[in-house]
Amino acid sequence: MIPPSGTPITNQPTLKRALGLVSLTFYGLGGILGAGIYALIGEVAGSSGTACWLAFLVSFCVASLTGLTYCELGTRFPKSAGESVYALAAFRKQSFSYLIGFFVCLSGVVSTGALSHAFAGYAHNLWAGVPPVLWMIGFMVSLTLITLWGIKESSWFNIICTLIEGLGIVIVIAAGMKYLGSVNYLSFPESPAAALPAVAVLNGAMLAFYAFIGFEDIVNVAEETHQPSVTIPWAILISLGISAVLYILTALVAVSAVPAAELAASKAPLLQVVQKGWPWVPVSVFTLIALFAISNSTLINFIMSSRLLYGMSREGLLPGAFGKIHPKFRTPHWSILFILAVSLALAMTGGLQKLAGATSFLLLVVFTVMNVSLIIIKRRDKNTDMSFSIPSWIPYAGALTSTALVLFVDLDSLTPLIILFVLGLALFLFQKVVNRFSRKAQGF
């Protein structure tokens, strides 16, 4: 493909293939595990009461349906700009493809802002004298440097962090295990928003869904993966399955050890569970584990968003600078720095719950479109000779369940998206003008 500037892509440095099944599965687990459960278990308990485990189960079912859709799409189109490429293949509209890719990128940026708040909250338990704003800035700048360093180095950091955050979740489960069976696991909070049990569960599921976000990031490192058409489906399924088991067990022991209302009011809810079950565990140790978990998920968001910007630029949807690769580190440096700037701005202006809600909304919309995209692609292309293919009813179910959860989004959480949407529209229109002038120049 020749970009609008007329410069062949083959003349530029390319991304480095360095990820196998193990490292890609850890990449998926690193994106899913940890940050959501560490940051939002209290919020889910506040919405669903002791039935928060059910909210996580509902979210897992929704995520799994769409996860299977991503497995087939990743097999069919192993490209960095995953969702944008899938939408273009299905709808054949460049502007719509851009919009979907932009939504996914926004989800990573907004999620990074949300996680910086979670990081500052846990870090405050260790060093209360440092202002939260300094924690957020130092946190994101450090992860930017790791992301710039290279995909192989980022992958090793991800594996270490994933092992540490997995240990943290195991500690929570073990510490609260003795309290299992001590409460009614279908007790709902008394509030107008949770007047009906089903509404309480779905409100919680909307928040819990944020904890499963991350499996979709796998497809955006396809060009850095060995045999992506085979490796991607397995990595998605394994990472989702392990995460679901750990999350549901964590939710059960958390509400067993600590009342749901107390979890909802806590800034470090899982730390409270550990202190209740195993008071001899030093607060600093578990806090450090939580910090590693949050750092890992944020790193994955950085990588995903920057690769998506890179891929969209290479498709001619964004300015060429986003498609530049650093000749030494083989990473899209301008895309990474852009993500840092926008994420910092968001972190300064939004809170955890609003940013998490905005992230869930964006991805649920994208997931609905991805399921519809696969429906269209499967109808158009009857070829089933692929390494991974799913039954035709799955994308229909994925589209319906994703759309259903969108209805439970808190509208206040959409406020931060307005400015970002205007920024994205400006970038797209700018590139449209550049493309038009480039074509006219080539005509002379």
Mean pLDDT score: 79
Q: How big is the Rg?
A: 21 Å
List the secondary-structure elements in sequence, H or E: HHHHHHHHHHHHHHHH
User: Could you describe the largest sheet, including whether it forms a barrel?
Assistant: none
Q: Based on helices, strands and strand pairing, what is the structural class?
A: mainly alpha
Which regions are unreliable across 5 or more consecutive residues at pLDDT < 50?
1-10
Number of separate strands: 0
Global shape: globular
Report how far the terminal alpha carbons are from each other: 21 Å
Helix content: over 70%
Q: How much strand content do the residues show?
A: under 5%
**Helix count?**
16
Summarize the structure.
Helices cover 72% and strands 0% of the residues.
What does this structure look like?
- With 444 residues, the chain is mainly α.
- It contains 16 helices and no strands.
- The protein has helices at 21-32, 35-48, 52-76, 82-91, 94-126, 132-149, 151-176, 197-212, 228-257, 260-265, 269-277, 283-314, 333-349, 352-380, 393-406, 415-443.
- Helix 1 (21-32) packs across helix 7 (151-176) and helix 7 (151-176) packs parallel to helix 9.
- The longest helix has 33 residues, at 94-126.
- The two termini are 21 Å apart.
Key phrases:
single chain, 444 residues, mainly alpha, 16 helices, globular
Topology:
Elements: H1 21-32, H2 35-48, H3 52-76, H4 82-91, H5 94-126, H6 132-149, H7 151-176, H8 197-212, H9 228-257, H10 260-265, H11 269-277, H12 283-314, H13 333-349, H14 352-380, H15 393-406, H16 415-443
